[in-house]
Amino acid sequence: MSPVGDRGQASVELAAGAAVAVLVSLLALQVLAAGYAAVMADHAAEAGALALANGRPAADAARSAVPGWPQRAAHVQVEGDTVRVTLVPPSPFAFLRGRLSATGRAVVRRPVASAGRWDR
Fold first, then answer.
1. What's the Cα-to-Cα distance from 116 to each of 17, 30, 84, 111, rounded to whole Å?
2. Cα diameter, the chain
3. Integer CA distances (angstroms), 109 to 49, 60, 74, 118, 119, in order
4. Which residue ranges make up each domain of the chain?
């Protein structure tokens, strides 16, 4: 038989192990969400720049290029020939929400009218 002090030890270890597993899972999902936000921010900025080069509204194109959840958390900024898209990934941790934002930037290069070459 086991001593009186060992009773319930397995239950405590199981509860602690489950809590650690949940925390590690949430952190892994957070890293994946931040990486996805970075990829989608670049993609949306490029879509906005292509629209800008074709004479269409860049902000609308950038927002429509971002599917699902990031669209509500997208901030599109158009300045001259530059399109910047900032996405804030969802987070179960309130203190991380603003700190993990990702920004994508794309610039439109317009041809030089006199030389027929692209700007550098």
1. 66, 47, 28, 6
2. 94
3. 9, 20, 24, 7, 6
4. 4-107
pLDDT digits (tens, 9 = 90+) for 25-83: 988 988 898 999 899 999 999 999 999 999 999 999 999 998 876 667 889 999 999 99
pTM confidence score: 0.74
CA angle 56, 61, 63 (to 5 degrees): 150
**pLDDT score, position 71:** 66
DSSP state, residue 103: E
Determine phi and psi for 66, rounding to 5 degrees: -105, 110
What amino acid is encoded at 117 in this protein?
Answer: R
